[in-house]
Amino acid sequence: MMKIKNLFITSLLCLGILTGCANNANEKAVEEKAPVETSQSEENEEIKETSETSDVISEVNYDEIAKKAEGTSVNLYGWGGDDKRNQWLDDYIIPKMKEDYNIEVNRVGMDIDEILNLMLSEKDSEEGDVDVVWINGENFENAKNNGLLFGPITQVLPNFNDYVDQDDDGIKYDFGEPVENMEAPYGGAQFVFMYDSSKIDNPPKNAEELLELVKANPGKITYASLPDFTGSAFIRNIISDIQGYEDFMDKDLTKDKLKEMLKPTIDYLNELKPYLWNEGQSYPADNPTLVNMFADGELIMAMSYNPNAASTGVADGQFNENVRTAVFDKGTIANTHFLAISKGSSNKDASTVLINLILSPEAQISKADPETLGDLPIIDYDKLTDEQKKLYDEIPSDKYTLSTKELEEHRIPEMPANLVPLIEEIWEEEVLN
């Protein structure tokens, strides 16, 4: 596997810190997180010559970055359990990187905890195997706060600057954590319920209706055991529906205070528990297991963070044509998943090219097709050319999945990342046990 060390991109992105964060109150902390591989005097000369505007960085130097990355290889790390995503990467992104840039992409499937441990061990090596990482939420916060990420990076990405709404809170914040250009958006997600329309005439529009449905169909509905990502999201959706999310946006809440605040939700979950699958004595280990139980007819409802999961499942033959999608009237949680560059990456140039390619309108639109992946595009429609808008408008839709408009009208924000593990601990103490 051919890897390179590249001083140019490191100097360039350090330059971006100095030009893009000059008015940031946390400037010193951000600068300390970026690797410095040239002397201060050398950087000052480069800054003087080339840093008058961010456009110089993002528009002039990107071609040089791509040129330096040509003929090298780059590793993309992320959860490997999404077969549709793996196929899209293998069939679209990897060949296009080779064709357009002569860069080999190695996709490495690994659980995020293992990835973070590897990034930690490679933090100061600059010869690490982890180049690009698929990351978000509490994992991003941990990586960012522990200096495991290289950046800021977005100022050197032409597709980010040309096609992404940088004022959108879903781009600026990741589970309430300021992104500060340390990661670039990968795609969008929103929590949805999937249900068997031959067994459920009217899907629940709120938590109270869900409780009634579960009681009327004992053993036929459940959720994945926490800390499964989707199971955890289900709990936060219940919190938001019963109590509202506004009081839970304070990242300084202690566990004791949070437990006190969550009493109405805990009471609800314990009332729900005996009517769930296996009388709530156990829960499916993860959401893929739950979805398979739904596909096999053991359950009449499932859930997903991919709003196109129903359409994708029908296209794959996993679900029958009775599957439909629903959200609560008050909304369901939506968020953005991101890509970042590991601080220990030995090929930051090729990492930059890979992320920029994934952010292209063509790539974003290609993965939005439910038969391909069904991942929501993160590009701003209003920023597209007429030809790109035509491609976007041709993204297939069907009766199995809610329209993009309806989903947008029912989006609510994620809670701060540091509250997520606390909520999971409280669930384990007060509901599971």
Notable traits:
D-Maltodextrin-Binding Protein, domain 2, alpha/beta, single chain, three-stranded antiparallel β-sheet, disordered N terminus, 433 residues, seven-stranded mixed β-sheet, 2 domains, 13% strand, globular
Plain-language structure description:
- The chain has 433 residues and is α/β, with parallel strands linked by helices.
- The protein folds into 2 domains: 7-185 and 339-396, D-Maltodextrin-Binding Protein, domain 2; 190-334 and 408-432, D-Maltodextrin-Binding Protein, domain 2 (3-Layer(aba) Sandwich), CATH 3.40.190.10.
- Helices cover 46% and strands 13% of the residues.
- Strand 1, helix 6 and strand 2 form a beta-alpha-beta unit.
- Mean pLDDT is 87; it is low at 1-60.
How many discrete domains?
Answer: 2
Shape: globular
Helix content: 40-55%
Structure annotation, total helices: 21
Quickly give the structural class.
Answer: alpha/beta
Please outline the major beta sheet.
Answer: 7 strands, mixed
pLDDT under 50 segments (min length 5)? 1-60
Mean pLDDT: 87
Taken as a percent bin, the fraction of beta residues is 5-15%
Taking all Cα atoms into account, the compactness measure Rg is 22 Å
Distance between the termini: 48 Å
What fold name stands as the CATH topology of the largest domain? D-Maltodextrin-Binding Protein, domain 2
Q: How many E strands?
A: 12
Q: Can you tell me the CATH superfamily of the largest domain?
A: Periplasmic binding protein-like II
CATH class of the largest domain: Alpha Beta
- Secondary-structure arrangement, i.e. CATH architecture of the largest domain: 3-Layer(aba) Sandwich
